[in-house]
């Protein structure tokens, strides 16, 4: 078998034939030509048998490595005059427009990006950090399901931090499919407004349930743009606010001990944080002993702890919706009379969102799946060692958690 014929089978690229092969010290260079006669615009479906002229320089693409050698494809392409986009170099079937890599190479990099960090990819496939990001953006833009915003009936809107200094992404998850279908920079009402604007009035009105946290921005946007949807407030966020209120009381008491000069007691009390915040069943022996000492000491910290546990017990499994409604009202009464400012504010917040909390329990709609996706997003951002832009972070989030099916290039694509 001739070398050119062998490489035609080895490359497994449709629509080309191998003209010649050259073996260099660190790479194998393969010159190819397109089989088709018609020229196709790389930006649209326009095709023509007439060429404008021929490229003066060769186009180069990186393909999957051949053992320890880099494998390069080279071709001298033709140019065509597109009525819409002007004079362009013809598109090729094995690579995206303006990319110096084949589809197979970019598929490998994108698949690796969902499973490891960029530094590992950089060393493994011998490309730089920024190139990994550009490949992720191209694959995401090309492979993302164009119909992902159709048939949305139960969604969750939440925010996730992608970088320090309060830099957030707003993500929209489809509860039925279990995927993130949309995202944007920011966590304000304007971010949610952009989603509903892209969704359009008819599809927005078709949404039946929207699960949210208790932030004001997303809820206001949801009520304005999706008036038919039931707003469901996830109990997970309610309990999280209870933990936050307890920690505020603990910190205030700790600062008071430091102010009066009892540094030894302040140091011991600082270590009590996880004894107070963790569920009693999950405490270590040392933490349980610390909690018993706090109970004997009494005071506002212990009262705050009992309120936090009372709030957590409201959402224990096995209770009916009527039981939960009664328990919420009892908690609101206790919080209002607690003389603990963080819990008074918490009670006011819960009272404002009481109907949404009960709706989430009645419909069995919560942010659990959204939070699971958000935890995956946080893992992605930590693993990537930071992003330079929200666009880069969002591209990797959609690549990993969105409606995209990624496969290594050796697996058959359906």
Structural notes for this entry:
- The chain has 414 residues and is α+β, with helices and mostly antiparallel strands.
- The chain has helices at 3-11, 103-113, 118-125, 129-143, 189-199, 201-205, 216-225, 235-259, 263-270, 273-277, 285-297, 299-314, 321-336, 341-352, 354-363, 368-383, 390-401; strands at 16-23, 27-34, 39-40, 47-48, 53-54, 59-66, 69-75, 78-82, 86-89, 154-163, 167-174, 179-185, 209-212, 230-233.
- A five-stranded mixed beta sheet has the order 12-11-10-13-14, with helices on both faces. It has a four-stranded mixed beta sheet with strand order 1-2-7-6.
- Helix 4 (129-143) crosses helix 17 (390-401), helix 12 runs antiparallel to helix 13 and helix 13 (321-336) runs antiparallel to helix 14.
- The longest helix has 25 residues, at 235-259.
- The chain is elongated, with a radius of gyration of 29 Å.
- The two termini are 31 Å apart.
- The mean pLDDT is 88.
Question: What average pLDDT do the residues reach?
Answer: 88
> What radius of gyration results from the CA coordinates?
29 Å
Strand order of the largest sheet: 12-11-10-13-14
Structural class: alpha+beta
Distance between the termini: 31 Å
Strand content: 15-25%
Major pleated sheet: 5 strands, mixed
> What global shape is seen?
elongated
Number of helices: 17
Helical proportion, percent range: 40-55%
Uncertain ranges? none
Assembly classification: single chain
SS elements, strand count = 14
């Amino acid at each position: 078998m001739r070398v050119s014929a062998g490489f035609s089978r080895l490359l497994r690229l449709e629509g080309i034939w191998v003209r010649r092969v050259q073996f260099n010290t660190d790479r194998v260079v393969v010159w190819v030509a397109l089989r088709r006669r018609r020229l196709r615009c790389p930006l649209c479906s326009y095709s023509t048998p007439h060429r404008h002229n021929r490229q003066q320089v060769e186009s180069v693409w990186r393909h999957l490595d051949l053992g320890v050698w880099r494998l390069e494809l080279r071709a001298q392409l033709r140019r065509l005059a597109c009525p819409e986009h002007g004079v362009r170099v013809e598109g090729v079937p094995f690579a995206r427009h303006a990319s110096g890599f084949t589809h197979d190479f970019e598929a490998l990099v994108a698949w690796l990006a969902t499973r490891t960090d960029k530094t590992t990819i950089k060393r493994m496939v011998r490309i730089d950090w920024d190139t990994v990001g550009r490949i992720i953006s191209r694959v995401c833009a090309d492979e993302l399901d164009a119909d992902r915003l159709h048939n949305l009936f139960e969604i969750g809107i939440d925010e996730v931090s992608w970088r320090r200094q309060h830099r957030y992404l707003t993500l929209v998850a489809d509860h039925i499919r279990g995927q993130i279908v949309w995202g944007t920079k920011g966590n304000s009402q304007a971010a949610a407004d952009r989603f509903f604007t892209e969704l359009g009035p008819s599809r927005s009105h078709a949404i039946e349930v929207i699960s949210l946290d208790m932030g004001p921005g997303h809820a206001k946007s949801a009520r304005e743009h999706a008036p038919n949807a039931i707003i469901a407030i996830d109990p997970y966020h309610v309990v999280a606010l209870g933990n936050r209120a307890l920690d505020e009381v603990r910190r205030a008491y700790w600062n008071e001990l430091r102010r009066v000069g009892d540094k030894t007691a302040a140091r011991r009390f600082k270590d009590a944080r996880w004894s107070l915040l963790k569920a009693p069943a999950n405490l270590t022996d040392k933490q349980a002993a610390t909690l018993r000492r706090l109970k004997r000491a009494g005071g506002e910290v212990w009262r705050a702890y009992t309120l936090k546990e009372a709030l957590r017990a409201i959402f224990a499994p096995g209770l009916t919706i009527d039981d939960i409604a009664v328990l919420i009202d009892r908690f609101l009464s206790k919080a209002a009379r607690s003389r603990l400012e963080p819990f008074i504010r918490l009670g006011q917040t819960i009272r404002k969102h009481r109907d949404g909390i009960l709706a989430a329990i009645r419909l069995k709609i919560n942010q659990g799946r959204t939070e699971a996706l958000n935890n995956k997003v946080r893992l992605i951002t930590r693993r990537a060692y930071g992003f330079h832009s929200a666009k880069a972070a969002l591209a990797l989030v959609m690549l990993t958690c969105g409606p995209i099916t990624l496969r290594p290039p050796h697996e058959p694509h359906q």
